[in-house]
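Example for tutorial group B:
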């Protein structure tokens, strides 16, 4: 574990740079303990000006299969493999409820003015847009692997778990990372062959 002074310096750096790579809580936007990555437990707080701060608290010995846990137990626990999802930015593109592309436990309520309210299942399960409830087993495909592929900007893909949703990959120049913007087809339409199609044109 780091001495407090170094933790403090790290905190200052994170706030100064304000890039989500140094400040994962900018992406998480939920107060409390959160695994920042496989080896670091952190704490997310909103400061007086309303911006998110990441406090890195604890490093796990991943070489001995101890990985960060923020479910039930906060800290480092022995795990066969790290289950901490790789996080990234989310911005609302339209009103509605959208799955978080990175973490199956999370979802986003987007207002018609595209204000995002991030939510997280508290029962340790994943969120299903089909049932609009926290019912996905954590060992389901949707929770175990990334549900999007972004290899170039402008790439479009369907959301396998719920064909009403799709994503468009964009390039965040600051971090030189591609990330998916989540979108939803119009009522009744589903995403097929790179487009939202009405029910009568669906392949059967
Ligand atoms: C994990 O996150 C912490 C805090 O953001 C960072 O200092 C550390 O380098 C990260 N570790 C890895 C392996 O990415
Ligand atoms: C992403 O691409 C890989 C390799 O082409 C493929 O195996 C995987 O199924 C794809 N995942 C999704 C969610 O489309
Ligand atoms: C993102 O955009 C920057 C600047 O236009 C470019 O240099 C970089 O190669 C792009 N990255 C990807 C992954 O497309």
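The residue assignment follows.
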């Amino acid at each position: 574990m780091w001495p407090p002074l170094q933790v403090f310096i790290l905190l200052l750096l994170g706030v100064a740079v304000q890039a989500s790579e140094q400040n994962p809580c900018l992406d998480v936007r939920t107060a409390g303990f959160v695994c920042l990555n496989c080896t670091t437990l952190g704490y997310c707080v909103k400061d007086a000006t309303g911006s998110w701060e990441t406090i890195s608290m604890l490093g796990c010995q991943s070489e001995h299969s101890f990985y960060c846990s923020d479910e039930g137990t906060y800290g480092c626990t022995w795990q066969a493999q790290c289950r901490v999802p790789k996080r990234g930015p989310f911005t609302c593109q339209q009103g509605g409820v959208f799955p978080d592309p990175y973490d199956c436990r999370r979802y986003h309520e987007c207002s018609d003015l595209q204000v995002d309210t991030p939510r997280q299942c508290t029962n340790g399960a994943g969120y299903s847009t089909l049932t609009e409830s926290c019912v996905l087993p954590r060992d389901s495909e949707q929770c175990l692997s990334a549900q999007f592929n972004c290899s170039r900007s402008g790439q479009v893909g369907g959301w396998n778990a719920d064909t009403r949703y799709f994503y468009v990959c964009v390039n965040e120049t600051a971090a030189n990372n591609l990330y998916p913007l989540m979108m939803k087809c119009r009522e009744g339409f589903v995403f097929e062959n790179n487009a939202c199609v009405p029910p009568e044109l669906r392949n059967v």
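The longest helix spans residues 4-17. Compare this with the pattern of hydrophobic and polar residues in the output above.
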